[in-house]
């Protein structure tokens, strides 16, 4: 009876290992959550809203020449483990200057945000990284000109993304 019992136990262990290898790894979930707070909003928009176009997480401002609008950006890790997010945003042009300022240290991160590889933010699960998007209206801008600035966060799995949208219109 002894050898039969060992074979049975080995067969059960092998079957369990095979089944667990076929199951999705649901314990590890990547989920970036981009949020935005603008001059005309009272709190962050986009919490638990996930999309690639910024819908339901869009804010705007009307700004005079020579002035700037500041938008608070928050990149929250809604996943189950730390995430090395890639952050990308729009560039400025001859009518609008665009800057990205990192967190409390006020580090200018514009070059990284607008580069092909984007900026990196290593964010623990349940924690967020904060930035400020500054869009300044240059003298070349005319009344009614508009700058739409989409900012995206992509999880390290390169599949999970979220976006926010800031719009500045010249007044």
Question: What can you tell me about this protein's structure?
Answer:
This protein has 171 residues and is mainly β. 15% of the residues lie in helices and 42% in strands. It is built from two helices and ten strands. The protein has helices at 2-22, 110-113; strands at 32-37, 58-63, 68-77, 83-88, 96-102, 107-108, 119-123, 128-137, 146-154, 161-170. Strands 1-3-8-5-6 form a five-stranded antiparallel sheet. The longest helix is centred in the first third of the chain and has 21 residues, at 2-22. The radius of gyration is 23 Å and the shape is globular. The termini are far apart. Mean pLDDT is 88; it is low at 4-23.
SSE layout and pairing:
Elements: H1 2-22, E1 32-37, E2 58-63, E3 68-77, E4 83-88, E5 96-102, E6 107-108, H2 110-113, E7 119-123, E8 128-137, E9 146-154, E10 161-170
Parallel strand pairs: 2-10
Antiparallel strand pairs: 1-3, 3-8, 4-7, 4-9, 5-6, 5-8, 9-10
């Amino acid at each position: 009876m002894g050898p039969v019992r060992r074979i049975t136990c080995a067969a059960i262990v092998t079957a369990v290992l095979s089944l667990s290898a076929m199951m999705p790894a649901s314990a590890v979930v990547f989920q970036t959550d981009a949020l935005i707070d603008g001059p005309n909003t009272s709190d962050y928009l986009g919490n638990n809203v996930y999309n690639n176009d910024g819908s339901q997480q869009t804010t705007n401002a009307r700004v005079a020449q020579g002035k700037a609008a500041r938008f608070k950006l928050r990149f929250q890790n809604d996943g189950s483990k730390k995430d090395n997010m890639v952050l990308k945003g729009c560039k400025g042009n001859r009518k609008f200057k665009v800057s990205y300022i990192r967190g409390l240290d006020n580090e200018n991160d514009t070059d990284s945000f607008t580069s092909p590889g984007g900026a990196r933010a290593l964010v623990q699960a349940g924690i967020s990284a904060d930035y400020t998007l500054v869009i300044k209206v240059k003298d070349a801008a005319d009344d009614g000109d508009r700058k739409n600035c989409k900012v995206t966060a992509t999880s390290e799995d390169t599949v999970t993304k979220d976006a926010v949208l800031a719009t500045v219109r010249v007044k």
